[in-house]
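Could you show me just one protein sequence together with its fold in token form as a worked example?
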Amino acid sequence: MDNIMYRSEDSYGSGVRDILDVMTYEIYGLNNTDILYYVCKHYLEDKLKYTVTELMYSIEEGLDEFTEEEVYDVCKRIVDIINKKTNHNLKYVLWLAEKSVVSNLYTDDPANIDAYYTSDIILSDLGSDGILFAYDDYPEPIQ
């Protein structure tokens, strides 16, 4: 881990880092499918990939076929598979972006921008808008 990216808690930061809580909120609470697309493409296969595809379709069509508990369970299964494939014990996540992006989109005060080391595990890549990194250990700002 030698790459550094940035974030600010000003605009969208909640302080929540738990991998399952963040994934569930992004998917169920915000109806975002980017994590689901990314993990399908990079980590999943077989039955779980089919379930995740059904979940994406349900969200995109506004069908509300999955409860929050079911989404949480799908996220747990996704993390378990990624852990097995990558020999990790992922527990935390953090959205990070380039410093100029954070400064322009996610904060009103450049003094509130923190630097973090990136992880080798990505759960979503929105390009310049940010990348969702997963970590075994709690990500702390670089001092």
